[in-house]
Amino acid sequence: MNFRLLKKRLATRVGLNSIHGRLTAIAFFFIIGTAVIIGGVGFRYTAGFEKERFHEHFRLLARYMASNAELGMLLGNRSLLAELSDNMLDIEDIESIEIINQQGEIIVTRGHKEAEKRGSVVAKVYSRPMNAAENPFVDVAAEREELGQVRLGYSLRGLARLKNKLALSFLVISSVLALMSAILYLRFSRSIRAPLKDILRVARKVSAGDLNVRAEGGTLLEISTLASAFNEMLVALQLHRRKIQEANDLVAKQKTMAEVGRFSMIVAHEIKNPLAIIKGSLGPLRKTTSTMEVKERMFSFIDDEIDRINRLIEDFLQFSRPRKVVLQRQTVAAFLPLLINRIELLSQQVKVMVPCREECLSRELAVDAVLIGQALLNIVRNGLDAAGPAGEVRVTIDCSDEELLFSIVDNGPGIEEQDLSQIFDPFFSKKAKGTGLGLAIANETVVAHSGHLAAHNMRGGGACFVLSLPFVKKGVVDGADTDC
Fold first, then answer.
1. Of 91, 223, 334, 337, which is most buried, counting CB atoms within 10 Å of its CB?
2. What share of the chain is helix, strand, coil (3-state, %, to 5)?
3. Are 375 and 444 within 8 A, CB to CB?
4. Do residues 387 and 426 make contact, with C-beta atoms less than 8 angstroms apart?
């Protein structure tokens, strides 16, 4: 495994991938390190001082023993020296005493059984002048005679006990100091971390769209200032959102009014022209001199314009009040025949070709056959209008692995390049008698079927509309309602 990846996973598991985790680790490292160093250095110096005092203690005892042994050595009284040695052995940690005369002979030796002698100290025994001070530890400048020496052997058990006691004391003190430092750090860390977590919680709610939440500042001045600034930002965002909403509402209202005005103008314009033609046709009908041929022509004009008004109203109603799209699963083989028949009945100028592969005929579609038929008819009518009376519209039905494809090609003049991006917009039309709703309704119907409708110009002239409908995938439930 990559070492960097292993290091990253380990850091994540122990919490070192966050600022709080790293600061906590650093704080504990310095707290424990400081306690150990201070305790170790303090123990070392204290133990050294006590060791020096310990050895100095026995040197003083040896000098004291030497000053008291002067009389016994002058008199040669060994029993006195032995009694003095026995008394000295009662002192803790003194293991053995040897008194040596001037000739180097050991005249008295005393010691404990199974003595543990770890150190020894020697003090010389001198004879003092008669005018010497009574203090045995004061050196006299007068000339003195060396009578012998006292060798005092001692053990280090007391020193070891003292060291252990000192070590335990320093360990306890260091542990208490480290624990208190850790507790104070954790309390301080919590006073920072809790408000920051609260600000993070508020930020998440704000990102979800809730601007009514507020952050708590905590007790620290800096965090409280940060929380106050964050809350002020939320208030500003609420005010800004309210202003944007009001502006959007105003724009939507103005846009709606503009659409209503445009809608009313188009309706008035489109109805006015047929009514003018109808009114003009009524004049010859009122004349008694008009021939039957003229009257029949006028009636024909009136019928055409009434059909035009009726189609216009139907388009507006369909656009303003779209019907529900009821999707039903059916195979391509069951869906196409009725649709092809409706297209062919529209005009003799329409040619339908179905080079669809046999395996595609068994694929299923989720369609509203009536609405898809109306959408295709709108596109074909648009092609017929563009092609003119002598033109032709070819409808090719084919399929890919995932879609059923309809290609509607006319041999008209095509679509101007600047109009291709607006061809499916409502009310966009370049025809004298068009409402601009046919292609818009067709596009909405196709989108409601999760399909796609696109337009482009052919190289040899004319326009091509490609309508695609997706096949049903496995696991899709039958029947679904949506708004067209």
1. 223
2. 60, 15, 25
3. no
4. no
Give residue 332's domain range. 323-483
DSSP state of 418: G
Contact between residue 97 and residue 104 where contact means Cβ atoms under 8 Å apart: no
Q: State how far the Cα of 38 lies from the Cα of 21, in Å rounded to an integer.
A: 25
Residue 78 lies in a domain: yes
**pLDDT tens by residue, 204-243:** 888 887 878 888 877 777 778 888 888 888 888 888 888 8
150 contacts 66 by C-beta, under 8 angstroms: yes
Q: Which residues pair with 331 in a beta bridge?
A: 364
d(CA 409, CA 382): 11
Q: Letter for the amino acid at 403?
A: E
Q: Are residues 301 and 381 in the same domain?
A: no
Contact 383, 431 (CB under 8 A): no
Task: Tell me, yes or no, whether 135 lies in a domain.
Answer: no
Strand partners, 119: 154
Cα distance between residue 314 and residue 319, in whole Å: 9
Q: How far apart are CA 205 and CA 217, in angstroms?
A: 17
What is the full DSSP assignment across 37-83?
A: HHHHHHHHHHHHHHHHHHHHHHHHHHHHHHHHHHHHHHHT-HHHHHH
The enclosing domain of 298 has a CATH number of: 1.10.287.130
* Strand 106-111 with 393-399, pairing: unpaired
How far apart CA 386 and CA 431 sit, in angstroms, is 9
* Tokens coding 229: 């600034």
What tens digit of pLDDT does each residue of 67-97 get?
A: 888 777 877 788 888 888 888 888 888 888 8
Distance between CA atoms of 3 and 412, rounded to whole angstroms? 69
Is residue 341 one of the residues assigned to a domain?
A: yes
261 plus 156 within the same structural domain: no
- Strands in 452-457's sheet, in edge-to-edge order, are 350-353, 393-399, 403-410, 463-470, 452-457
| pLDDT tens profile 407-450 | 999 888 888 888 888 888 777 676 656 666 778 888 888 888 88
Q: CB within 8 A of 141, min separation 6: which ones?
A: none
Sheet architecture: strand order including 106-111: 106-111, 94-101, 145-154, 119-127
Same domain? For 384 and 251 the reply is: no
> 205 and 245: one domain?
no
350 bridge partner residues = 393
Q: Is residue 133 part of a domain?
A: no
